[in-house]
Amino acid sequence: MEIHNSIDSVSTQKLNAYKPISKKTHRLAVGAIFFLQGLCFASWASRIPTIQQNLGLSESALGAVLLSLPVGLMLSLPLSGWLITKIGSRKVAVINALFYSLILVFLGFAQNTYQLIAGLFFYGLAGNMVNISINTQAVGVEALYKKSIMASFHGLWSLAGFVGAALGTIMIGSNIIPFYHFLVILVVAWLGVTLSAPYLIKEDKKGNENQPIFVKPDKSLINLGVIAFCSMICEGAMFDWSGVYFKKVVQAEPAWVGAGYTAFMCTMALSRFLADWLTSRFGLKAILQLSGILTAAGLIVAVLLPQLATAIIGFFLVGAGVSSVVPLVYGAAGKSEVLSPGVALAAVSTIGFLGFLVGPPLIGLVAGATSLRGSFSIIALMGLAITVVSRRSKF
Questions:
Q1: Angle in degrees, CA 108, 40, 160, rounded to 5
Q2: What is the DSSP code string of 337-385?
Q3: Amino acid 356: pLDDT
Q4: Would you say 316 and 263 are in contact if contact means Cβ atoms under 8 Å apart?
Q5: CATH 3.40.50.970 fits 23-199, yes or no
Q6: How far apart are CA 164 and CA 363, in angstroms?
Q7: Domain boundaries, the chain
Q8: DSSP 8-state code for residue 206
Q9: Residue 210: how many CB atoms within 10 A of its CB?
Q10: Which pTM was predicted?
């Protein structure tokens, strides 16, 4: 009898050892990586002025140096999809999340411009590897839930941005150099990744394992890429030009110059936690069309009524408009029947990130030829394009 009980006990332990991971646990693990990536990026962004001062870089020199980050990002786009197909998104996410936080420390250690350029190139490359692979993981978790949850993951990234910015402010106020600041982030990131890694999805949706690195997306993916492109132009405008707009057009007091950017970031983060519920209730196409309308309306309000209160309201609307576009587009791309999730996400991201890169300089060129209000008016057309393309697309 005792022998039978012992055998039953051992069998029970083995069954528990192979007990499948719950979808909630998968969601928490994937969400943790999103948060940690956002924390790393925000930590870097918060110390850019300090690093600029330490290396004695002028504004123009800093702008040239910062270009190395998107160069690394763009070069990683086709490679990331192929690599995920070969070894799986879980391995790519874990390896590059560890590498990403390690490079952050190198950025804080950089002693000259050349080291900073090299570090930023690899920071952009590793960062986008994490981005594509963890979004592929999110597509897998979304499939388990059988409903839209992608935007909530991106909401965690945005939330991490606030945490990283606040921590950066504390570090600056305490006169802690970037190297030690980034070491703290490294410890947090490595601990978080180590704890989360076992609970990431091990098997991605299968695709053609012999896919080439460069893949031409089909019409539906191109439409998703165009929607992302238009949205990222608007996002780039907010990130790089909102402060300038409030200073030169709104003519806000110095203390209020950042109010537009803050308004934009607040509604973008909060709206991402609502977008999944709204998408499940009203459908992907309806929410994308509404997003385009809100983006265009917000920019038009800020252009036609460039007073402090109305401009803040306009930027609130833009934040709500662009908040869910990229997460929802990524979620739709990950369900492609033609390509595997990793390759499909990389294809759409390639088109989308072009908007993020060309948007800010485009605004500068148009502003130089006309005015800053004129350039923001043209960007408003990108919001309307989101609505038009979404309406004509088949999702």
A1: 140
A2: SSS-HHHHHHHHHHHHHHHHHHHHHHHHHHHHHS-HHHHHHHHHHHHHH
A3: 75
A4: yes
A5: no
A6: 28
A7: 23-199, 219-392
A8: P
A9: 6
A10: 0.83
